[in-house]
Each structure stands twice: as structure tokens, then as C-alpha cells.
Write a structure and sequence with these properties.
Elements: E1 2-7, H1 13-30, E2 46-52, E3 55-63, E4 74-80, H2 89-104, E5 110-115, H3 119-123, E6 128-136, E7 139-146
Antiparallel strand pairs: 1-2, 2-3, 3-4, 5-7, 6-7
Length: about 150
């Protein structure tokens, strides 16, 4: 298993295509949710993924503080390839993503917009719900925060 972390300007065209393809495959096609994935945050973000056998098995986007949320970094576009589900790759991905956030932004808490059905999954990484459930792209979401040094 090979973990890769790159800024947008370090991505090859093939890497960018592959991560956008995986996001579209899961978030738009599989979840049957047409939404604007390209939101002008990719260019300012770090991209974290795991390759296994030359395939992008799982991916997240690390957004620096002040872009998605004032005073918080963020982990978003959390996705596992369908062919790697059930292998524990999602947990490994979140551990790696939290680690990367803490390395890049050591004094900054992490805020995410979680699909509500995944609250217990994120609780396992010390994220706590804040506020009320809200609809985002017709899917129930809730804001969650992981305070620094949790």
C-alpha cells in the first residue's frame, strides 16, 4: 500500500483525472447525486490517496484553514473505491488524513461536513457532532469537529 500526499500543482494530469473519476464514480453515479464537484477548492488543497496494485483505492482532499471554514482545516471528498470496500481502507484513509492535517496545520482543529449515516465512523476518529442535521445535495449531513491534539 502506497500513500501519496500532493498539492494540486504537484499532481500529474493522470493523477488528477484518476481522483476526479473516483469522486464522480461514487459521489455522482453511485449515490445518484448530481452536484458540482469542481468547486475551486482543489487548487488550494492537498490531495491524499492510497494506491494498491496501481489503482487509487481511497482518496481525501485536505482543505487549509480559511477556505471551507474560518479557523479550521477540513477533510473532504472522503471516498473509497468500490473494489476496496470491506478491507479497512476507509479507516486507514481517515487515520492518514487526520495525520496529514495535524502535520500541515498543527494548531488547527479539523471541521468536516459528514454524511449523517457516517457519524459513528467519524466519532471513531474523535470527531464530535455540532449543530443540527442539514441537507446538502439532498443527503442528510452534520458538521463535526475534531479539536487539535484530540
Amino acid at each position: 500500500m502506497n500513500w501519496i500526499v500532493k498539492r494540486y500543482d504537484e499532481l500529474s494530469r493522470n493523477e488528477l483525472y484518476t481522483l476526479l473519476r473516483l469522486r464522480a464514480e461514487v459521489f455522482i453515479v453511485e449515490q445518484n447525486c448530481p452536484y458540482q464537484d469542481l468547486d475551486d477548492k482543489d487548487q488550494q488543497s492537498y490531495h491524499v490517496w492510497c494506491e494498491q496494485g496501481g489503482i487509487m483505492a481511497a482518496y481525501t482532499r485536505i482543505v487549509p484553514p480559511g477556505i471551507s471554514y474560518d479557523g479550521y482545516s477540513s477533510i473532504g471528498r472522503v471516498v473509497s473505491s468500490p473494489e476496496f470496500r470491506g478491507t479497512g481502507i476507509g479507516k486507514k484513509l481517515m487515520r492518514k488524513s487526520v495525520e496529514v492535517c495535524e502535520e500541515l496545520f498543527p494548531a488547527v482543529s479539523i471541521k468536516i461536513s459528514a454524511q449523517f449515516y457516517l457519524v459513528k465512523f467519524y466519532n471513531g476518529f474523535k470527531f464530535q457532532e455540532i449543530g443540527e442535521i442539514y441537507l446538502e445535495d439532498d443527503i442528510d449531513h452534520i458538521a463535526m469537529i475534531r479539536t487539535m491534539n484530540s
